Description:
Layout: H1 3-7, H2 9-27, E1 40-45, H3 53-64, E2 70-74, E3 85-86, H4 93-96, H5 98-106, E4 111-114, H6 118-126, E5 134-138, E6 150-156, E7 184-188, H7 196-206, E8 213-226, E9 231-233, H8 234-237, E10 242-246, H9 252-258, E11 264-267, H10 276-286, E12 290-294, H11 295-301, E13 310-319, H12 323-340
Parallel strand pairs: 1-5, 1-6, 2-4, 2-5, 6-7, 7-8, 10-11, 10-12, 12-13
Antiparallel strand pairs: 3-4, 8-9, 8-13
Family: Belongs to the LpxK family.
Function: Transfers the gamma-phosphate of ATP to the 4'-position of a tetraacyldisaccharide 1-phosphate intermediate (termed DS-1-P) to form tetraacyldisaccharide 1,4'-bis-phosphate (lipid IVA).
GO molecular function: ATP binding; lipid-A 4'-kinase activity
Amino acid sequence: MNLLRKLLFPFAILYGLITSIRNFLFDKGVLKSYSFDLPIIAVGNLSVGGTGKTPQIEYLIRLLSDKYKVATLSRGYKRQSKGFILADANSNAATIGDEPFQFFQKFPSIQVAVDADRKNGIEQLLSQTEKPEIILLDDAFQHRKVKAGFYILLTSYGDLYSDDFMLPTGNLRESRSGADRANVIIVTKCPFNLSFEEQDDIRKRLKLSKGQELYFTFIAYDNCIYGENRKIKVEEVQYAAKVLVAGIAKPEPFFSYLQNSNDVYLSFPDHHNFTDKDILEIKNLAQNNIIITTEKDYVRLKGSLPNEQLFYLSIQSSFISGSENFNKTILDYVGTSTRNR
């Protein structure tokens, strides 16, 4: 923790007090939460920064979309538009945000919507001719105006909310007690060989409430990179000269998976909007070499860099153990909620 953050500790106390009062008012019904007559799963975190929400949403889409009509609803962070938008053929990363556009391109059978006002977004989705049967709320753990039926809380391995502080001293958006609202807590970005002893230690540090389920996941990288019209095995480009570009939080694992001593690395802030200057820099550094980026960045860079040079590396969230039990928990909730309708 740097000195400036330590000096801002009084503001962290104040911020924590404000968020605690807000949560208390929602808990007591002074501030109204709205429920809806369909299964709603909210995925989020207590902290700012990347905890792996996008691959977790994609995991849920794969689990549910073969059986149900699924919609995702995000705020569309850093999009150049306002209000409710339902993705269509005219949508792009600028109009709906990079992560929603990624969902839209990868999963054509689902509805993808954005709206900073989640209540309005849900109402708009339910007013469509094709109504969803399930809505997945992306990054909505603090959106108390909507009462989801099921909450999944993510926390990163090595950066657990139990060890963090309130903003601006730490990275917490609300008090650690907010974790009590979660049905399931997932520790993301773990080593794939995380021992049972360390899992048990983390369980104790998180101090789960009664009935909460805990899971551990790791990021599984694809063994291929993908371009506009072709794919290449990672092993074929591992030792080739290339440019690696990432505009995500904590890009180090992405770089290390592909790295070569001859590679050029370019790291940008999370959800970075690439400027003409950035594009020119990437082109100059790449020359005729390939450019590999993250899937999220690819949807923003596509069209600005040569198709024959630009590729992305896909990732998925994988459970160290207990995936069958997690799937059953989700499917049981959705099935019961659907029958109750």
